[in-house]
């Protein structure tokens, strides 16, 4: 057994449900490695786990995006060695140490520091999934991107622009609008406006090719009404609550629209896919296409405060926990 410090969720609820304290890690099994966590990224999926929107077995250590150093390996591990710098996409990141399947660890490029890696790994692979795997973005297309300055949106906007996609970003304040423009958005609309009308104006009346919607319940009607015939509504988040059911017949009435609800873990379910996604993200980072912004860092014991900040909608960029700081 090895002792770590961790955030443990024993019952669903508000931020106060996140308990900080000691955690006994079991001995490593075959195929596992132990990671000393240097930084963990916060994501909305962590909040969905905490609230019970996405049920998990309790007790549970949240955090699906973490980076650190391999401290020990179990029997039969050949993919990583002690001392390797790695990223982990999976449960257990809100801790000083975690045991993880070695074949689910991603090697970090020497040029990428831990904080940058924690700010970009899962969020960047989400953007990669949206632009390359769910539907290949093409030059000359138009996209509606919600929450363009959040953890995923701030990567999605410049990556889409680098592919030749024209972006109408939808945000809530003029400060965020300025950031969206700096990230490359062609134009900005505000949530309290008629977003669908703005999308029609942006496209000369045609409607956008695709809506990347991380907001959910409060944004879905605007997304649907912003699309051109055969356009794609890609709903990948629930920041305002889960989107409500849509009658398939309505998709036909609106112009044979295509709706999908992708989850990243379905697109990185094999080691080859995981490494392909991570390679694309780090390649875009090294090339300068992506430049993650770290909004704030917190000690592990302040995970509740960090999640509250993420839920507030005030953030521009990534939030990190520093478990061993």
Over the alpha carbons, how many angstroms does the gyration radius reach?
Answer: 20 Å
What is the residue-mean pLDDT, rounded to a whole number? Answer: 96
Strand content: 25-35%
Uncertain runs with pLDDT below 50, 5 residues or more?
A: none
Q: What sort of overall outline do the alpha carbons produce when their principal axes are compared? A: globular
Q: Which H/E pattern describes the elements? A: EEEHEEEEHEHEHEHEHEHEHHEHE
Continuous helix count: 10
Q: State the helical fraction.
A: 25-40%
Structural class, by secondary structure, is: alpha/beta
Oligomer: single chain
Q: What's the total number of strands?
A: 15
Distance between the termini: 23 Å
Largest sheet: 7 strands, mixed
Describe the structure.
There is one protein chain. The protein is α/β, with parallel strands linked by helices. It has 10 helices and 15 strands. It has helices at residues 44-51, 114-134, 153-162, 174-183, 195-202, 220-226, 248-253, 264-267, 271-287, 303-312, and strands spanning 2-9, 18-25, 32-41, 66-73, 85-88, 97-101, 105-107, 142-146, 166-171, 187-190, 208-213, 227-235, 258-260, 294-299, 318-322. Strands 3, 4, 5, 6, 7, 14 and 15 form a 7-stranded mixed beta sheet that branches. It has a 6-stranded parallel beta sheet with strand order 10-9-8-11-12-13, with helices on both faces. Helix 2 (114-134) crosses helix 9 (271-287). The protein starts with a strand and ends with a strand.
